[in-house]
Request: fold
Amino acid sequence: MRPAIRPNLQSPVAYSPTLRCSAPLSLAPIRHYDRKRYLKEKKKLKAQQNQEDISFAESFGVFKTYCLGEDKTVKAHIQVPKHEEGHRPLRGEVLLPHQVSAEDNSVILVFAKGEHAEEAKRRGAHIVGAEDLIQDILADKVKFDKVLSTKEMFPQVVKIARVLGPKGLMPSPAKGTVSDDIATMMSSLKAVTKFEVDGDGSIHIDVGKASWREQDVFENLHAVVGAILKVRPSKTDANKFLESVSISADHTPGMKLPMKPFKVAKAAKAPST
Reply:
């Protein structure tokens, strides 16, 4: 005869004739997700990464110590997303409020006739011509870096827009590169600096000297950022398009700058001290 089953009073599991498991039951720990706290910590970490508690003046002051008293050229390195294959690389030009170097080795081409052509030569234009110059450009016989045009020649220049446009060389009245005032165009053109993104999504451009005031370097940097955002792809968020801004000089380590002053292209304000 089979002996009767007796309950184990020492076990935390309640006795049941049909229960075959003798292991104690336990509840799995519940993880509490606090969304408000998560978003707060995420915002705090992002602010720390962007150095929002550091002013531009403080950053540039530290950078000057890297230069060891030498008046070195300050170069900006601006990181943007890499352009996709098949799309035109990002390029443009900017008129810096404070010119970095008086030397400009760019080859200037001017479309002009008669007196305007003679004035362009006197002002330092390297290549001056009219309809014959258009044919030379189509045949790729001339090399140049900047282009100006008089109002008389502009309708002819439009015919080669397919050649000049992709290179960022097409003159236009909006940019001030189409006018009969040769003197003003030449002086403005020499102060214009071109930029173009490289294969890594970086733009490199000189923005000042180590001996300059923080305000002057900041205004040049702000002008460069504004020019880049103007030529960014359409339907692109300006704040997300600009990834980082750094400065460096010859034989010095690079310095990543706080992003807050460059997030929105507004009128440049004096950097806080």
